[in-house]
Design goal:
148 residues, alpha+beta, binds ligand V0V
């Protein structure tokens, strides 16, 4: 793939939080954002909300609030080790498999051999933080017709 075809925009920034309702309350009542979407993802072990500004456009990055669904969740592990805060940066892509393959060719490991289901039916994979300068980088291919 050409470099110009790899990434569309920053899709979202994921924040690990201990309690989703408390985090939503803070980000809406104090920071003035609004909830765009909320769901649970059992496979990823998260209860999550996507929030946006009052003027959120389709290519403006969203904030994803991520709370652990259970004690085995990657978010529970992250909270125990690092405390609440930024857990991931997510880049939007047109084709998650092609982007993962291109990054693999360039020496970046992806976590899953095939994409998994993410927010709003998107297809997702992650780059290992050890290969990206310490950042858990998510690749997000939105479900067709949406830009969660
Ligand atoms: C771990 N490390 C991180 C990190 N998590 N570095 C930066 N950002 C993070 N979030 C570092 C950690 O400090 C260690 O470095 C090393 O990686 C191994 O960490 P660990 O604590 O032993 O943890 P592991 O290996 O058990 O798990 C780490 C990975 C795991 C990244 C493999 O968190 C994972 O599978 N993440 C992908 C899935 C995920 O995050 N799901 C929740 C979001 P040192 O100490 O060895 O130097 S779900 C989502 O985003 C959805 C649904 C969506 O957007 O659609």
């Amino acid at each position: 793939m050409d470099n110009s075809d790899l990434f569309i925009c920053i899709d979202h920034v994921g924040l690990a939080v201990a309690n989703l309702d408390d985090a939503i309350k803070f980000h809406t009542e104090v920071m003035g954002w609004r909830v765009l979407h909320r769901e649970s993802n059992a496979e990823q072990g998260v209860e999550e909300a996507m929030i946006g500004t009052g003027t959120q456009g389709p290519e403006n990055a969203q904030i994803q609030l991520l709370a652990p669904l259970n004690e085995n969740s990657t978010i529970a592990k992250f909270l125990a080790k690092s405390g609440p805060g930024m857990q991931q940066l997510a880049y939007r892509v047109h084709d998650v498999e092609k982007v993962a393959a291109t990054l693999n060719e360039r020496g970046v490991r992806t976590l899953y051999p095939a994409p998994k289901i993410g927010t709003g039916g998107s297809r997702i994979n992650f780059c290992h933080p050890k290969d990206t300068g310490g950042i858990l980088l998510e690749l997000v291919e939105p479900a067709s017709g949406t830009a969660h």
